[in-house]
Amino acid sequence: MTSETTNPEAVREKVREGYGAIARQGGSCCGPAKSCCGSGNAGALAANVGYSEDELSVLPEGANMGLSCGNPTAIAELKPGEVVLDLGSGGGFDVFIAGKKVGPDGRVIGVDMTPDMLTKARKNIAAFRGRTGLDNVEFRLGEIEHLPVADNSVDVIISNCVINLSPDKPQVWREMFRVLTPGGRVAVSDLALLQPIPQDVAEMVEALVGCIAGAVLVKETGQMARDAGLVDITLTEKRDYVATMTDWNDPLFRKILETLPAGAKMSDFVTSLYVSAKKPLA
């Protein structure tokens, strides 16, 4: 790979630039270029991955930017009063949905490393408060490899299509273990590889921002969770999501498809992956 996609700080800067552009200008679930997978069809994307109309009704305008690759709040089975942490919270999409689920006695913290996303999310708090009467969400600037959250302080961690972007995924899983309370749980939606992607695709910065070049094999994700100390790990592949994304003819996906071997499909290489896990009580 080029140094641009292997140097950790270069990776973070490219991701920060790409998602900063999405926050400022709008764009697609795969990068800052305008596309049918982006803001114009964000509602359709959310419905496709399992969000209900009732869940989406609490969202402030602009919070749903079509950046999902699953529905972590559904697999988290959030309960009133829980403290929830969202890794890579973006404009606040899952934070606001989780805020409604945990209610006035709960708390939801969103962490994002992109200042433009953080600004967008914080501006949305007032609208969320007006729609729900709840004042139980906050957003913190930080990297998911170094969470600005205390040890043993979070009941549930959610994340939606973000961990694959990290240049140090094992450290992310260790941080998740650190901040979870004993017995706390993880509910993550991410993109993962079914087989290694071609080298020229892996070197594309567009693929990196679109969550593909940074993804690892499904089995590697499970191993990182185990190595961090988590237990009761369940990995559920959702291959139909990637096939649907490709059908939307997103510009980034068209570019990547042109680089794949003849006859190959994106879903031959990439899957949406739901990861559930727990921190042991002892």
Task: Assign the CATH superfamily.
Answer: Vaccinia Virus protein VP39
What is Rg? 17 Å
- Structural domains: how many: 1
> So how many helices?
12
Largest sheet: 7 strands, mixed
CATH architecture: 3-Layer(aba) Sandwich
Helix/strand-derived category reads alpha/beta
- Biggest sheet strand order reads 3-2-1-4-5-7-6
Calculate the mean pLDDT score and round it. 79
As a percent range, the share of strand residues is 15-25%
> Looking at the structure, what is the overall shape?
globular
Distance between the termini: 42 Å
Order of helices and strands: HHHHEHEHEEHEHHHEHHE
The CATH class designation is Alpha Beta
What this model shows, in words?
- This protein has 282 residues and is of the alpha/beta class.
- It has one domain: Rossmann fold (3-Layer(aba) Sandwich), CATH 3.40.50.
- The protein is 39% helix and 19% strand.
- The chain contains twelve helices and seven strands.
- It has a seven-stranded mixed beta sheet with strand order 3-2-1-4-5-7-6, with helices on both faces.
- The termini are far apart.
- The N terminus is likely disordered.
